[in-house]
Design goal:
about 725 residues; mainly alpha; globular
Length: about 725
């Protein structure tokens, strides 16, 4: 904040990671944060150099264009694989101040596999994936290294799942033969290793491809935004807008954690860092520990479904479905807003019921002062959205958003240097032609526009400096640290994508996903009524998605659930009929399983985000988890709403259809909040709570009659509230 008398927010959150209790909670529930943090200076410098080179490689290829798939993905995956063995200890209690010789050897092997992949890529591609015995041994080594790195960086859940799929792949292929001999086993091993390692189906599949082209850049973007002070801007904006209202601190947590959770891609890390400020503030206001931890957990998990970044899983969804990234953004807007409205409604009703007040306005920085100090930090986000909706590739948009961040926050030396480098990149074809003695080509309008992206942030930076508006400034060291932090933060994502590649590769090689889908659909066909059959299948798919997503980051959660659970829905005639077209049906199915996979982080017994919130609030982990589920009840209902009314996803829908579904959705989540909290001007008995819940469910189903029922229930409750107020 601008004054000492004002409530501190961003600084408290930033300093929170230095708190031993907060750090302990983060390492306990977020395996990704369990790294070697006391390494010798020489090792630190080596890691820094590798990270900077990889960051610069990805930044350059995002502008100039990526390499061929195998090369781009191999450089990305195997470089980060080597860094994993340097930074992540063998066990939770492993050495944190040094790199044991065994881990150093594994790191060198990982780097060596990457070099080998680059050397043999052309030969393997030319031979249509045929590999020799040396290739097979290197491939087996690559799979083993990825599995161990997955265990270190993400925990046992994804590791065991990938191992089970790998074992099933060998079993499924070998079971075709009535008798086995060495030649059959060797040929099968070559087939599986070639599929999983040397072509773009397994380790180098779609997940790693998206990680190497999109996700790494948005993680770097998030790291630069972190250095710029955007996190403090979100906290201060939330405080200025909602801090003074009833239950203000909880609403601040919902708003700030939602925005930050969307950008940083880790719900658990967001709970711990942002929650270190918001949870104590909620407790001081009067919220109980379990509720305070649950609010932070539900808001942070919800950030994974909040556009425009959606915890990075949206990029993989766009790639898998071959749809524009902007379609995923638009589809996520209404469901995410309904989710957050549901949480805010419950927070507000709880504050009314318990008589909780907000924060004194005198302790809050006015909104105008907040925007004057850090409002310029919204410009990079505006650049990102503009380029995306202008049809530019996500990696291109990410590159220029990073550039805008540096230009608008840099010191004058950084801004000047970055401007010159960017200008040279813009006119690269012209100066290359000049150096080669060729005719100089004209500068197309698309490149001229890029000069505006350079000029506007730089001009805002200069104007702010002239007027003495002081905020965070990024120098060369900050830019270096942002690239280093971004690459380190990308390690768990890339390794998880590699492990997911094993799962997806085995699924495509054996057809197990379709077999599971057929089995579930066959079970559902025992039900004679199509609507009931669809509801039962949706519930079974929901449970499968929650189980598959337990304890996993958002990216592997989406890939696994879309591979294993989405085909279940696509085999249902009524589901396809409601969607209207095959493409819409596939999109809706993927959104459905993605949502429930994400909410596994709130669902006991593996509600890691809720447990992290309980670690800070001092509440009961399981009680916090169940309370988080209650707060997130709208998130468990909204996917059913867009199955029955895909206009909520803004697909093949008129403006009137969209407005209708928004209106019924808002009323529905309000009725859900009333039913869960049991309060509306006064405590409600069981009858009124059941009535509110029934009205909410009626609004889920599209149709005039169901909407009228929901409207009547809402009207009855409104009359009851007015009578109590009178």
């Amino acid at each position: 904040m601008s004054d000492d008398k004002h409530l501190s927010s961003g600084q408290a959150a930033a300093d929170a990671t230095d708190d031993p209790a907060v750090k302990e909670a983060l390492e306990k529930y977020d395996r990704e944060s369990l790294v070697r943090d006391r390494l010798p200076d020489g090792v630190i410098r080596g890691v820094m150099m590798v990270a900077l080179l990889l960051a610069l490689f990805h930044l350059y290829t995002s502008f100039a264009g990526p390499l061929v798939d195998v090369a781009q993905r191999s450089i990305h995956l195997y470089t980060l694989l080597g860094l994993t063995f340097i930074l992540y200890p063998l066990t939770r209690t492993g050495a944190r101040h040094r790199v044991p010789w065994g881990d150093a050897a594994l790191a060198l092997l990982a780097f060596g596999v990457g070099v080998y992949m680059l050397a043999v890529a052309d030969r393997v591609i030319a031979s249509a994936g045929r590999i020799n015995d040396t290739d097979m041994l290197v491939g087996l080594l690559a799979v083993a290294l990825v599995l161990d790195a997955t265990r270190r960086a993400t925990g046992w859940g994804l590791t065991l799942l990938a191992t089970a799929f790998l074992a099933y792949g060998f079993y499924a292929k070998l079971s075709f033969y009535p008798a086995l001999d060495a030649n059959i086993v060797l040929a099968t091993c070559r087939q599986i290793v070639s599929h999983l390692v040397f072509i773009t189906e397994g380790l180098l599949g779609t997940a790693t491809g998206v990680s190497a082209s999109y996700i790494i850049l948005f993680i770097l973007f998030g790291a630069f935004l972190g250095k710029s002070g955007l996190g403090q801007l979100f906290n201060d904006l939330a405080l200025a807008v909602a801090g003074h209202t009833r239950g203000g601190p909880a609403k601040v947590a919902v708003i700030a954690s939602g925005f930050l959770g969307s950008i940083n891609g880790s719900a658990i890390a967001n709970v711990v860092t942002t929650g270190a400020f918001t949870i104590p503030l909620m407790k001081r206001t009067g919220y109980r520990p379990n509720f305070a931890g649950a609010v932070e957990a539900s808001a942070s998990v919800g950030g994974q479904i909040l556009p425009p970044i959606m915890g990075a899983a949206a990029f993989i969804m766009a790639e898998v479905l071959s749809v524009p990234y902007t379609q995923v953004i638009l589809a996520g807007i209404i469901p995410a807003l309904l989710f957050y409205l549901g949480v805010l409604f419950q927070v507000h009703l709880r504050a009314l019921r318990d008589g909780l007040e907000g924060i004194d306005r005198a302790r809050l920085t006015p909104l105008k002062a907040v925007l004057l100090k850090r409002g310029h930090l919204l410009v990079p986000m505006a650049v990102l959205l503009w380029l995306l909706f202008d049809g530019r590739a996500p990696f291109f948009a990410a590159f220029w958003s990073i550039a805008a961040t540096v230009l608008i926050c840099g010191t004058w030396r950084v801004t000047l240097g970055a401007s010159l480098v960017l200008a040279l990149l813009i006119v690269e074809p012209q100066w290359q032609a000049l150096l080669a003695g060729n005719p100089i080509p004209g500068l197309p309008a698309s490149r001229l526009m890029l000069f505006g992206i350079v000029a506007l942030p730089a001009a805002i930076n200069a104007l702010r400096a002239k007027r003495g508006l002081v905020a965070e400034k990024m120098d060369v060291a900050d830019c270096r640290d942002a690239m280093h932090d971004g690459v380190r933060n990308a390690i768990p994502v890339a390794i998880a994508c590699g492990a997911v590649g094993i799962i997806v590769g085995v699924a495509t090689l054996t057809g197990i996903a379709l077999e599971v889908a057929d089995a579930v659909v066959t079970l559902g066909q025992q039900i004679p009524f199509p609507t009931v059959q669809l509801l039962v299948t949706l519930m079974l798919t929901m449970l499968a998605s929650i189980v598959l997503g337990m304890g996993l980051p958002s990216i592997p959660t989406y890939i696994i659930t879309s591979t294993m659970a989405a085909p279940i829905l696509l085999n249902l005639p009524l589901f396809r009929e409601l969607a209207g077209s095959s493409d819409t049906a596939i999109f809706v199915a993927h959104m459905f399983v993605f949502y429930f996979g994400i909410f596994a982080n709130l669902t006991p017994p593996v509600a890691l985000a809720a447990y992290a919130g309980a670690g800070i609030s001092g509440g009961s982990p399981n009680a916090t988890g169940f309370q988080a589920m209650r707060l997130a009840v709208a998130g468990f209902v909204v996917p059913y709403m867009f199955v029955f009314a895909h206009s909520m996803l803004m697909i093949d829908a008129s403006v009137g259809d969209i407005l209708l579904v928004v209106a019924t959705g808002v009323v529905g989540v309000l009725l859900l909040a009333v039913a869960v909290e049991g309060y509306l001007r006064r405590p409600l008995n069981v009858f009124w709570r059941l009535l509110a819940g029934s009205g909410a469910l009626a609004l889920i189903f599209p149709g005039l009659i169901s909407d009228l029922v929901g409207a009547l229930v809402a009207g009855g409750l409104l009359l009851l509230a007015r009578r109590e107020a009178g």
